[in-house]
Write a structure and sequence with these properties.
heterodimer, A: 199 residues, alpha+beta, Alpha-Beta Plaits, two-stranded antiparallel sheet, 36% helix, B: 624 residues, alpha/beta, Substrate Binding Domain Of Dnak, Chain:A, Domain 2, Rossmann fold, 3 domains, six-stranded parallel beta sheet, 16 strands, globular
Chain lengths: 199, 624
């Protein structure tokens, strides 16, 4: 089954996924009209920051079994069988907070829905888009390949191939080649070291 | 072919995009697709890269940051970005104008061989407007004095730029009250950059009013000087016929294209291709002759004055090389896609850049100055002719036959066609034969099917007896669609058809390049002055259905500030600020008597404009 696979080491923190997510779940679906709607659509993907300021795109993993679903007393949270997506029925939600406490990833939030009622709020893996054969909005907009919509096993197969290439290139030489991302991280570490010394 | 029909309405474009793909050449449409979906923050104007406390973004959904690091809110961020856009557009047109001032000055000094004064009448008229007593002075001395006076327009010596006085009295008073009269052409652009630096102007209304002043410094300054001096140096355009589309390329001649915006380089190329020695050389290389054609606004300048045909507009520039029939493209500046060099690597086409401010990958740089322009033009033309034997004749693909296009409608030639005065036009408007006039201007943009926005809008406007004036890329679009020949009157409403028939003109008139939007402003001012009302009372409108560039944003701003309702086909990056969006689309009406509308569908644009013109006619007490 296809899921959104996150490659945090590729994320540059551009926040495009958050913008596209909010637009995709807005009433109008238009980037120009969505900010003008009465109930603002909220992004369902969050960019966390590590201690070293490295960004991490965090969203619902659609677990199976899903702790949030098990914790939901009113059965507002349920699994859509054909795509394996964990969904929320906002009309059944009583805002008790159990799901967000149970979630190991901290991705269940509480926001207003278009009917102006607050309820638990999280990624629905763009199930409406999926039914039209389109990838989730966050994946479509990600320019650096940090978010991919794929089968886990396929991704791991590809990673294995990449690893094989690296092995044959010689892991040592491969590791010595600095990516632009590494340079940025080193620059950030340097800044921190400077700050530490100054304080 | 349906895949290509979604990209452009033009047959020549569709066929050559297909060939480009077969040849493995990447086009602007492919690159656009790879960029999609584009950055939402940037589309709304909510990203700021002005300083390195940033880059910052504001979250329009209220979940993330609402202020940049400096504390700028959505209004300040959008206004600063927009003002910088206007400044860049004004800088481009005005720098173009400056080049003509320099050439005029050098002509006066006798240091510009190849260039001369072609329209002495206009030189004297301009000199009078600048308060120069020309009695008893030679043309050279007048040229020098006029150039010097114009240099002052660019500087900080004056309280207001000279040609702003062409605006009607009421408009000048309004601008005076709003403090938006430009003081110097370069000064306003420079001040925009200052105001938008972190920690200077942080009131969005004040920022936008200055942006208006900056745009007026272009419309009544840099652009207007550019147009007027081009007429003086190269001749005021007169009506005549030319041709458009890729079919203007010839399979048995050396094809040389000129691309960019300035007539300063291309007029010298015209001299060189007409030279006997060059023609002999071409014949010795197996070509029947040398065929010169234009692209973009350089093409418009040459078509207006010399009736030289045009191979295409903005989105056609890469495709010209795909024909395999182009020996060289000579570029000056603005709107020249850096991709041209990449495309040229797949064909035999040689590319030449000519301006020290515009250099490109895979282009040979041959610098033009007023002093050396003539010899450099000869050098490039010679090399182009020598490139002819490298053409792979079996692979030449010229997809279509050219279409006739009438051109050359300067203000002077329109007045001439009317019998020497603007009164017949006013009478036709009063009688309702012509309901109003609309400038359809602007660019191409891969976000809109090429030329669809232009052509559909023009057809609807002329069918409703509205006279259309075109500049820039729209000229080529309208020309290709056959809307700019006298026979196109059959597509016009009964009133406009009668007028076009009487004067033997098309219902859509080509008035020039994008700096020549100043010609439309001059006509609007002349109409207002003749009737004795302000411009915003007239049945006029403007539309930029496929605009892409910062220059177009500046043009839209000075049109609006002059009192002309302006419809944009592509959303400018302002929607991130509710206050500014409301101001632009309605609030400005209370300030300038005109505002903007954004609408991509040409049918709806036509409706908006027709309603606007009806309302203005009612206001003047004319029948609707």
């Amino acid at each position: 089954m296809k899921v959104v696979v996150v490659k945090p080491e590729r994320c540059v923190g551009c926040l495009q996924c958050r913008f596209a997510c909010a637009v995709a779940h807005s009433k109008s679906g238009s980037p120009y009209a969505a900010p003008y709607e009465t109930v603002l659509s909220k992004p369902r993907i969050h960019i966390g920051l590590s201690k070293n300021k490295d960004p991490f795109p965090n969203k619902c993993r659609h677990c199976d079994p899903a702790p949030c679903e098990m914790a939901c007393l009113t059965k507002a949270i349920f699994k859509e069988p054909s795509t394996g997506t964990v969904l929320i029925n906002p009309d059944r939600c009583i805002n008790c907070g159990m799901c967000s406490m149970a979630c190991p990833f901290g991705v269940v939030r509480y926001h207003f829905y278009p009917n102006n009622r607050m309820a638990a709020h999280k990624c629905d893996q763009c199930i409406a888009r999926q039914k039209e054969g389109i990838a989730p909005a966050c994946v479509e907009v990600c320019k650096v390949g940090a978010l991919r919509f794929e089968d886990y096993n396929k991704v791991m197969d590809r990673d294995t191939d990449e690893l094989s290439t690296l092995v044959y290139k010689g892991i040592r030489t491969g590791a010595q080649e600095k990516s632009s991302y590494q340079s940025l991280t080193e620059y950030k570490h340097g800044l921190e070291e400077l700050r530490r010394r100054q304080s | 072919m349906s895949e290509y029909a979604n990209l452009s309405i033009c047959r020549d474009a569709q066929l050559t995009i297909k060939k480009a793909h077969e040849d493995g050449v990447e086009t602007v449409w492919d690159r656009f697709k790879k960029q999609e979906p584009q950055c939402g923050y940037c589309e709304l104007g909510l990203s700021c890269r002005i300083c390195v406390m940033g880059p910052c973004r504001i979250d329009p959904f209220g979940d993330g940051p609402q202020y940049g690091v400096c504390g700028a809110d959505a209004e300040i961020m959008v206004a600063r970005n927009l003002a910088r856009m206007i400044a860049a557009g004004a800088a481009s047109h005005s720098d173009h104008g400056r080049e003509l001032v320099e050439v005029l000055y050098k002509i006066g000094q006798g240091k510009a061989p190849g260039y001369s004064i072609r329209d002495t009448g206009k030189l004297k008229q301009l000199a009078a407007e600048y308060g120069i007593d020309a009695a008893g002075l030679s043309n050279e001395v007048i040229a020098q004095r006029l150039a010097e006076a114009m240099m002052e327009d660019y500087g900080m010596k004056k309280k207001k730029i000279t040609l702003i006085n062409r605006a009607p009295k009421q408009r000048l008073e309004l601008w005076e009250k709003l403090k938006v009269i430009p003081r110097g052409i370069d000064r306003e652009t420079s001040e925009t950059m200052h105001r938008t630096h972190m920690g200077v102007d942080n009131d969005y209304v004040s920022l936008l009013l200055h942006a208006v002043r900056n745009s007026l410094a272009d419309g009544y300054g840099g652009s207007m000087i550019g147009t007027e001096l081009s007429d003086i140096i190269f001749g005021t355009p007169q009506p005549g016929f030319s041709e458009v589309n890729l079919g203007v390329l010839k399979d048995d001649e050396v094809n040389i294209l000129v691309h960019g915006h300035s007539p300063v380089v291309s007029e010298m190329v015209v001299l060189a291709v007409e030279d006997k020695e060059m023609l002999e050389l071409a014949k010795s290389k197996g070509a029947k002759g040398i065929n010169l054609a234009g692209l973009c606004c350089t093409g418009n300048e040459l078509m207006m004055r010399k009736k030289i045909p045009m191979a295409g507009n903005h989105l056609m520039t890469e495709l010209t090389m795909v024909t395999g029939a182009v020996e060289s493209i000579i570029v000056d500046y603005q709107c020249i896609m850096p991709s041209l060099g990449q495309v040229s690597q797949c064909y035999h086409t040689k590319l030449y850049s000519t301006s020290d401010k515009a250099k490109f990958p895979f282009m040979e740089h041959v610098e033009f100055t007023p002093e050396n322009a003539k010899e450099q033009a000869f050098r490039i033309v010679r090399e182009s002719v020598e490139n002819f034997p490298r053409r792979n004749k079996e692979k030449v693909y010229i997809p279509t036959s050219p279409v006739k296009n009438m051109t050359g409608f300067s203000v002077e030639s329109i007045v001439g066609a009317l019998g020497g005065s603007i009164t017949p036009l006013i009478d036709a408007i009063k009688a309702g034969k012509i309901k109003g006039a609309v400038g359809v201007v602007g660019c191409n943009n891969p976000k809109i099917k090429q030329d669809y926005g232009h052509v559909e809008l023009i057809k609807r406007l002329i069918a409703n007896d509205i006279l259309v004036l075109t500049t820039g890329c729209v000229n080529v679009a309208a020309g290709k669609a056959g809307l700019q020949v006298p026979e196109a009157k059959e597509l016009a409403g009964p009133g406009l058809r009668e007028v076009c028939g009487l004067l033997n003109i098309p219902p859509s008139l080509h008035v020039g390049s994008c700096v020549d939007n100043s010609r439309i402003i001059v006509i609007a001012c002349a109409l207002a002055n003749a009737i004795g009302v302000d411009i915003d009372k007239l049945p006029l409108a403007a539309a930029a259905p496929e605009w892409y560039s910062e220059k177009a944003a500046t043009i839209a701003f000075y049109a609006m500030a002059s009192g002309i309702f302006t419809v944009l086909g592509v959303m400018p990056p302002i929607a991130g600020s509710k206050k500014i969006t409301e101001l632009a689309t309605s609030g400005l009406n209370d300030v300038f008597g005109a505002c903007f509308a954004v609408e991509p569908d040409p049918a709806k644009v036509a409706e908006l404009i027709i309603n606007h013109i009806t309302e203005k006619r009612k206001g003047l007490g004319l029948k609707t």
